[in-house]
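ugh ok fine here u go
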Amino acid sequence: MSAKETMNGTALSIQHVTKIFAKPNATALDWLRRRRNGTKADGQAKPVVAVDDVSLDIRRKEIFGILGPNGSGKSTLIRLTATLLVPDEGEIRVFGYDVIRDEMAVKRLINRVSVDAAFFKKLSALENLMYAARLYGLPGKEARQQAFQILHRLGLKDSEILGPLEDMSRGMQQKVAIARAFLSQPTLLLLDEPTTGLDPRSKREVQAFVRELRESHDATILLTTHDMYEAEALCDRIAILDEGRIVALDTPMGLKKLVPQQNGGSPTLEDIFMALTGKELIKEEERAAV
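structure:
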């Protein structure tokens, strides 16, 4: 598929992608091929198969969600798309550009927010964003105006914007990470657990801004989350990932048709998830409290 053809329809194409964490990698791939063929791999250590033959296409301007428990491969898939990891098998294209052969072209089209975003903690939120703006090649005056506008939109006050980042809560720092990604107005925005650690009001502010980015800036958004309500409220389609493989992919309404009604009522996305994976979805903040 050419870049021009992709621009008219598919924003992100992931085809038969596999990522294994093991050394040497050739041995790990041999182990995986033996498993797929039903052949025992005697004497070989079992590698960690983070992403296992995943294929999906995300349409332009779509908000696409990936649900999965910890260790399911969600973050690895995001990092592969962001050119931070190289797939062992398969192909990933962003608006027609191959993430390996056309790495710099892909980087100009994307930005990423992770749950563990890094900052210069002694600097203010504004200074962190202005530093990022210089890396993006954005004009200083325009970037400053946009930084204030985005941070205000996410609920930050001027005193918070100009104060040291180390004085902010984790949730507030996550808002700054989101603002930093929005600053470059990416065509493909990769959100890896973007609202983890945020209070309910802040979550709603971020979710509203995600919708606004899609509508006003023609952005496509790939979102990983543990929050079922967030996934249902934001996403046009959702893939459920378990042990590196997609076990279901459909609209929220389509997924709900996969499981019978619960006690006379419609099943929730959590019901669907547990029925398909046999696992309970535990959010990061809930896990930390256990």
